[in-house]
Design goal:
The complex is a heterodimer. Chain A is built from ten helices and four strands. By secondary structure, chain A is mainly alpha-helical. The longest helix of chain A is centred in the C-terminal third of the chain and has 46 residues. Chain A is globular and about 60 Å long. By secondary structure, chain B is mainly α. A three-stranded antiparallel β-sheet of chain B has the order 1-2-3, covered by helices on one side. The chains are: A mainly alpha, B mainly alpha. The interface between A and B is large, with 47 and 46 residues.
Amino acid sequence: MEFFQRTLDGLLEAGPYALVGLGLTLGFGMLRRVNLAYGAGAMLGAYTGSWLHVRMDWPIWAVLPAVIVTTALTGLYVQWLCFGETDRTSGSVQRASPAVSGADAREVVALAASFAVWMQLEQLCVNWIPQHLKRFPDVAATQEWTFGPLGLRPDRLLLSAIAIGLVLAVHHWMQHSRTGLAMRATAVHPLAADLSGMPVAKVQRWGFVLACGLSGVAACGVLALEGQVTPMFGMWMLMKGLTVAMIGGLGSVRGVLFGAICLGVLEAHAQAAWGAIGRDAAAWGLLLLALLIRQRSSATSTTGSVYA
Amino acid sequence: MRDALCVSEPGVGLVIQMMVLSMIALSAWLVLRVGRISLGQQAYFGIGGYAAALLTTLGQWPLELALLAASLMGMGSAVLLSWPLLRLPGLHFAVATLALAELVRLGLSGLHFQVPGPQGVPLGPDGVDGFRDIRWLFDHGVSQVDYMLWAGAALALSVLGLMLLSRTRLGLSLLAVGHDETLAESQGLPVNQLRMLAIALAGGLAALAGGLYAHQQTYLEPALFDPMLGIHAVGYSMLGGLATPLGPLLGAMFDLGLLEATRWFEGWRMVLFGTLVAAFLRWRPRGLLDEHTIYHLGRFRPHFSTTLKDSQ
């Protein structure tokens, strides 16, 4: 029974993980670059939310949209500073070749630049509000539903339902709307998209901003249950998001759900078996395993699975 | 933040730390040179630090031998750990090195191996509390200035070695792998072996840095080699320049020497460093000392740089 309870806890933990992974995988699909400043951007949004909540006494329904907007605007800044120039210099032609086959100069540059912005944003947050714990609007439920020997937190269940709904909605939108089609086209073959008259740079920019906005949604979901923000939040977002997105296949929207469930369940069991260090080690081990297993498919073609 | 990037003492101590960080930056540079980004050089830093400290405290080895053994161990572990990752594409390789480094760090966090020391103090690594009382320098009366000269000699030899290497056919082959893997392969170069060689050398360098660091600080704990250290090492290379081994040195000197040591930017160092690196990368993607600058300076083998310039 203990086993089932842990598995259930892990499954519920998958909700926030899926939310976190969604923005990262969408951003990667758009630009074929990993945005290392992903967590830091969400952290800046969360700090803004905390500041508005504590200092300005904003109610929760105003704080959460403010977090999402701040994160999306940070995304615009990150895109301009780290990913704008690389796109212009490389042009659409080179990007059309199967991406990420080697660490070409542009990839190195984009990765390092987004890392630099990560540090910058994180330090900015810490300088702005130096306390370790910052209050965030708290909506966590205190009661627990019990089903025989199994316990279930209704707020976590709701968050998981939101996560699943959002992932499926984004997937449906990517597959069936014209904007989604444009985004997929620019990701798979920028040159062809350009020749078909699509504003490639614009679609990429706003797709990236949308992905960052989704990371703001993830931050809201996670932090509203925690009721607080710490300076570790940016790193946490990036690492969990990266693991989930890598396991699900970078760029794959539905894969995020699969990755989140794997990570959540594994972490819950590893925590019980080996404690906190074991939990972290299991998460990193899973990421490594996912990379090694996926290497064959990703080495041959990374464009095939985009937004599947 | 409490990792190896925080300068703990002024003067000679700062210079030694700058040399140590230059060395780990140099190891990240070496991997960048063969066209891969490693965000995990801190793992070999940790392995080297622990190995050297174990040998001098528990094995009573002389420091020189211990450092040599630590670098060999760094090389060996780099070969063993990176072997499965060799065929990963660039981005996946970068993330995989990060994951590996974290696994190594967590592994060292769980390492308990203590024996009673001469003064009754237990010696050896003690889990997350790390490895304390690495007192070889005190016991053998080596002053900080002498140690600085040692570290300086090790760094100078490494830079010189890498400069000489880049003049040889082997160095050019490594560079060719970094520039265009497919082209290099079609010219009959053993791409994977060459890459492995660079990764092994980089592991050795990072381990040497770790050994030097552990003995200067007299302690080492897993929190000191967190991902920030590895990412900074890459950042130093990117800022300083990819064309010459002096690039990472320049980057480290800039961050530590100017931003940290002067304390003018107290608390804002990371903001400024981050802004500078990002701005630099936008307008000078191959760093301050890139191939064109080297060519125009005309100091370091202008002939060699011309071929590079043409190939770009």
